[in-house]
Amino acid sequence: MIQNSELILNPDGSVYHLNLRPEHIAHDIIFVGDQNRVEKITQFFDSIEFSTQKREFKTQTGIYKGKRISVMSTGIGPDNIDIVINELDALVNIDLETRTPKETLTSLNIIRIGTSGSLQEDIPVDSFVMSKVGLGLDNMLRSYLIDEVSNAAIEDAFITHTNWDIRKGKPYAIACSEKLEKIIESDKIFKGITATAGGFYGPQGRVLRLNIQDEELNNKMDNFDFDGNKITNLEMETAAIYGLSALLGHNALSLNAIIANRASGTFSEDPYKAVDELIAYTLNKLAQK
């Protein structure tokens, strides 16, 4: 039995942070970072059956072309992902009344839709990027036993290439779900490695008033190559999503609309259009699944 202090429930029986009960979520879930983006997706739904919000965690569940889908905002960073995926897993794989894991486990399909800037000149603005691998620079997942789901070869190659300071913790590399990759992929989608940082400023190489440990890290990341896979973009959630999903038996995939290209110095003339096109593409692929 899982103790009350470990799995906290609200008085109505919902999980503590997400404010959700099992019947509130679909098995196909779209993640966004910003709570204001939830309705940018659900505006395309035929109907919405449920909506709730607690803090930055907003969830709406409805029907799109006959497919039941939930859309959820996760906020920013790997620490929030730790909350969201553990509580989602509890909703489908733990009996909340007896506080015991279920004998038959459920696998959720989780797709993150975001925006990002490309690190590679050959990935133009307004294109889509699929994260084939999430490379975690954040340390959150190292609180768990991850050896069975992580790729040590990529980790070691990255450490060597960047002369990584191990005092910051060992990076981890987790692959996306092959199942979702096959459902979503097309010739128009670029694939690569997405690096996940534990912060927005220093961890991503931004300097305001504080010096950072490695001023050349971003340049070294730009030219990292592992068996033809380069680091396409840098953000704050993908590797954590991939890691926890793999450990818990869920399918996860991260997609980004590229609205800027750092290598060429270009920015999308209509970034909202690029995001809307990625949303429509993803919804239609899920509806056909």
Automatic annotation (TrEMBL):
Listed GO MF terms: purine-nucleoside phosphorylase activity; uridine phosphorylase activity
Positions of the Nucleoside phosphorylase domain: 29-266
Transmembrane region(s): none
Gene3D superfamilies noted in UniProt: Nucleoside phosphorylase domain
Protein origin, superkingdom: Bacteria
Protein EC: 2.4.2.3
Enzyme class name: transferase
Stored InterPro entries: Nucleoside_phosphorylase_d, Nucleoside_phosphorylase_sf
GO BP: purine nucleoside catabolic process
One Gene Ontology cellular component: cytosol
Signal sequence extent: none
Enzymatic reactions: uridine + phosphate = alpha-D-ribose 1-phosphate + uracil
PANTHER family: FI09636P-RELATED (PTHR43691:SF11), URIDINE PHOSPHORYLASE (PTHR43691)
Protein name in the entry: Uridine phosphorylase
Organism this protein belongs to: Flavobacterium reichenbachii
